[in-house]
Design brief:
Blueprint: H1 4-17, H2 26-35, E1 37-41, H3 49-52, E2 58-64, E3 67-72, E4 79-85, E5 90-91, H4 93-98, E6 105-108, E7 112-118, H5 119-128, H6 130-136
Antiparallel strand pairs: 1-7, 2-5, 2-7, 3-4, 3-6
Helix pairs in contact: 1-2, 5-6
Length: about 140
Amino acid sequence: MKSKHLSSSRDYTILKQATLFKSIDEETLRQMVAALSRKRMTLPKDFPAEVKFNTMKYFYVIVSGRIKISQINPDTGREFAFLLLGPGDVFDVICLVDDQEHLVQIDILEDVQILYIFMREVRFWIQNHADFNKTLC
């Protein structure tokens, strides 16, 4: 079993390399990592997306694994995959910005480990950390 310190150190390294967190100063990023919760999710590909991730309530950062985000055209039934995400990537930034639910399908392509935090805490970061705010724009 990994110690919390080792996990936090690994999480810090992954977030520091991620585009969204690159410009954050070391102390602020360490505070952000401490605020995040860790959860390892291993779900079958066909598990209902609405059960997997609550993007209105939580902001997610991928630590390992890959996911695909897509939409289904209601008229044709055809899938349009518009994001393939991996370590260091985040979702759903659009919900964070507009506070609206978006109908997307989130499929796990391989075992995924994520960090997640309440959206309200990320909004606090945006308001109080100019560097973090700039990377979202």
